[in-house]
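User: structure tokens for this one?
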Amino acid sequence: MSLLEALLLGVIQGLTEFLPVSSSGHLELGKFLLGDNSIPRESMMFTVVLHFATAFSTLIVFRKEVTSILLGLFEFKNNEPFRFSLKILLSMVPAGFIGFFYSEELERLFDKQILLVGLMLLVTGLLLFVADRSRDTDKEVSFVYALVLGLAQAVAILPGISRSGATISTAVLLGIDRTKAASFSFLMVIPLIFGKISKDLLDGSLAVQEGQLLVLIGGFTAAFLTGIVACKWMISLVQKAQLKYFAYYCFIIGTLAIFADLTP
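Assistant:
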């Protein structure tokens, strides 16, 4: 993979991590179109690094909320910041369980599985289309809802299922306030990304290959800067209930991906 290709994939990750169109799915499509021949493990590592970059973007945009969560967690008082921190931790359990025990199986999903990506993009589009029609959204994120959103996040490990799309759509369908749904969706992924990076560093999975460092740095930087812009944009879009346009986009790209995979 060249530096230019890494920068392009970084921009794709930065935009699609927060927009509900599946960043992992678009990365796989991007690698497919660019003719990337990385083995599954190396391809997965590049994907993890780009997700790490957008996790930092989230920290920048939601720095006040993250500070409140950390303070609430370590104060250990039965107040709103502490309960919110527990909800974030609860939401990461399903995806954390799958990522920890089924990491090798997940790596195989990031090996140009274009047909799977196309089908899952159609599922994402359907979720967004249904959620866009929901208008009664004024509830808080309860502990039960946090677990349900965690299950939605676990399903979104599949490339093509948008993590933000799945969690925000689920939250809106549960009647949760749209702004709070978007904030919770973006915050709940941070522990998972940092946990994944820590695990891979400890077991040696993120050993950088010769000549790969510049590519990783370039992709990280592009994803980080683009992610800051996209995160703020997405919050505004959710408030205005314009998810259906992303649903149409997912339908089109998903159909094209299926056609590309089935056509010699």
